[in-house]
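Input sequence (104 aa), recorded before submission:
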Amino acid sequence: MNVRYRLRFPLSAAGRAEGASRWFTGAVDHDTRGTVNVLNLVEGPEAVVDSPDGAFEPFVVHYAETFIVPADVGRYRIRPHGASVGRECATVKAFVRGTTDGDV
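Predicted structure, token format:
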């Protein structure tokens, strides 16, 4: 199984911001679903973020780095890279609830 588990949690008292954590060993597909995504690599030395649609150039993120995926990107993918290949990685993703039309 590529994604070990996922946790969802509120990020604000008003309940508008929400977060999700994923632990993975291979490529994980994401979709902004019309809202900005703010992510942090919280496990693993590095990962690469790319677009299956070519919406942006692939970029590498390192442990503890925060990165933003604009709402209009749509589909994107995160996978272990370099020293992380064959190891478990994890991200924490924040987004604004109520602006998405599906699961994170």
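Checked by second reader. DSSP finds no helices and nine strands in the chain.
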